[in-house]
Amino acid sequence: AKTRRIFEKFDLQLQSFFEKPEILSAKIIEKYIANKTAHTFDQTEKLINIQLKVLKDDLSQIDPTLAVALANRTRKINYHINAIRAKFHRSELRRNEVLQRQLNTAFATLYPHNGLQERTLNVTSFLARYGLSFMKWLFQSIDADTREHQIFSL
Could you give the CA distance from residue 36 to residue 24 in angstroms, rounded to a whole number? Predict the structure, then answer.
């Protein structure tokens, strides 16, 4: 139930959790927690790249080697902007302990012991907890015609 609420709260799909936790938390931070700052990062990067492209066009007419040098510097500038953005994500995640705890709970539920459920969980624990009717319920719940991942709430 907790994991389902996390899915609903942040409009997540199961496929969202196929990404690394850092990537997923960054997306959530940018969309739900600090979207104004994320927008500022986007705008800053866009404006810098526009101005650097104008400068590159001017330089390529004067001296093509300077345009090549500027292209290398542009990549470095974008790298550093993204590095600052990653630090911002980590800082926001540290400040927002609730989000960090919720994501850790969801990942622990979906990937017990940092592994795939089918490699970690055994049916006997579910049989002990829910009884023999668990198997009947499971077979009735499974859509055998799909190859997609399926989520079951117990």
Answer: 18
